[in-house]
Amino acid sequence: MDLITELETLGVNTKEALARFMNNSALYVRMLGKFPAAVKDADVLTHFQEKDYAAAVSTAHTLKGVTGNLSLTPLFTAYTDIVALLRADEPDKAEAVLKDILPVQEKIIACIEKNS
Amino acid sequence: MNNVILIVDDMEINRAILAEGFKNEFEILEAENGLQAIELLDTHPDIAAVLLDLIMPEMDGMGVLQKMNDNGKILHIPVFIITAESSEKMLMDAYELGAVDVINKPFMMNFLRCRIGNIIELYRHRNDLEEIVNEQVERLNKVNLSMVETLATLIEFRDCESGEHVKRICGLTEILMTAVSEMYPEYHLPRSEIEKIVTASILHDVGKIAIPDGILNKPGRLTKDEFEVMKQHTTRGCDILEQIPSVMDDDIYRYSYDICRHHHERWDGRGYPDGLVGDEISIWAQVVAAADVYDALVSPRVYKAAFDFDTAVKMINNGECGTFNPKVLNAFNASAEKIKREVIITEND
């Protein structure tokens, strides 16, 4: 199974993403390859643990944009909720959403790393 | 034609997607933060649009918009906010700072290309039109100026003077007006206004066209009655200008009218036609009056030889040619060497 097909099984809307990438699947795969490093640079969980919610909202916001553009739909939905909850002053609920989504994020990253 | 799109986003992935969407029609520039974007905007005059993320390190999107407002670039370059931001307030702030459109991430590339392409096309038309209008205004101004100069030259031929007189009055007005403006804050005028006054000075004697030849070119001293007729060149000049207001820019018309009427007024109230006193006379009319007197002194006339420079300066300072505002006299004396050097009487005069 190639990367794009495998990502579909994880809920990634690859059809929408390919339209965004002007059907350039090579570019889409190349940009997916940059996602694991982008996540490592944007460690939302540490910000939560340090209770630095300003940094958490900024980082979650960045990931919302990137996951949206890559159509990593489950992650995009979660980061959208996390940003909204943090802005509504609900850090505990936001952290709970993050903890729920991290295993999915890890699966997606593992899938990308395996195929690149 | 401006053909560069500047993409500003701290995430390479986002920049790469946007670049892919536009690379066939545009040259692409990328910046990772607001500071880099400002640098690129300063060094690339051919940017057709900016695709701007809001939340970035170093300088954020709002900072870029603010800077583009400060330097006026926002008027000529459309800025699109491409953001995952959904805060209404932040998006409204972006619009208020001049962003033309807000496009949310994730975006659909086809729609994005249409929206951005349409606006770029509109801005190109607008910028082209602006350039055409500016060129036409410049051409019109040149035509107007040449009409004004033609009119003044016609009068000079009747007055048996050469066209050099008008050129010298312009030169003298420019030097004196600049000196007065620099030396006395109460008379300060921006450069653009001084340039208009210099143009307006061309027509100071336009009314002489209405003075009969026998008086205008009389080789000897004028009788009292003849002098009364001669004095009318100030008010007759205004009558003429009233017939041709559309030839000139509004400001130049206003200055011309005032200079025409009042360039024979004197500081002590003994001038004509209105007998204005002191600062009732505008500073530009005072300056042209001083310029006119100096030029008459150093030029030969049918009834007198030319005075040399030093004698002319002395006569003006002694009050032999009427009383002048002491500040205008100071400016005249401070500029005397410049006048001697730059405003030359040629042998034909």
Structure in words:
- The complex is a heterodimer of chains A (116) and B (349).
- The model of chain A has no long low-confidence stretch (mean pLDDT 90).
- Chain A has a single domain (3-115), classed as HPT domain (Four Helix Bundle (Hemerythrin (Met), subunit A), Up-down Bundle).
- With 116 residues, chain A is mostly helical.
- The longest helix of chain A has 25 residues, at 91-115.
- In chain A, 80% of the residues lie in helices and 0% in strands.
- Classes of the chains: A mainly alpha (116), B alpha/beta (349).
- Chains A and B meet through helix 2, helix 3, helix 6 and helix 7 of A and helix 1 of B.
CATH C-level label of the largest domain in chain B: Mainly Alpha
> Distance between the terminal alpha carbons of chain B, to the nearest Å?
52 Å
Strand order of the largest sheet of chain B: 2-1-3-4-5
Work out the oligomeric state of the chains in this entry. heterodimer
| Mean pLDDT reading of chain A | 90
According to DSSP, the number of beta strands of chain A is 0
Q: How many helical elements of chain A?
A: 8
CATH topology of the largest domain in chain B: Hypothetical protein af1432
**Could you tell me the strand content of chain A as a percent range?**
under 5%
Could you say what the CATH architecture of the largest domain in chain B is? Orthogonal Bundle
Let me know the number of strands of chain B: 5
Structural class of chain B: alpha/beta
N-to-C SSE string of chain B, H for helix and E for strand? EHEHEHEHEHHHHHHHHHHH
Low-confidence stretches of chain A: none
Number of domains of chain A: 1
Q: From the 3D structure, determine the CATH topology of chain A.
A: Four Helix Bundle (Hemerythrin (Met), subunit A)
What Rg of chain B, in angstroms, do the CA atoms define?
A: 30 Å
Characteristics:
heterodimer, A: 116 residues, mainly alpha, Four Helix Bundle (Hemerythrin (Met), subunit A), 80% helix, elongated, B: 349 residues, alpha/beta, Rossmann fold, Hypothetical protein af1432, five-stranded parallel β-sheet, 15 helices
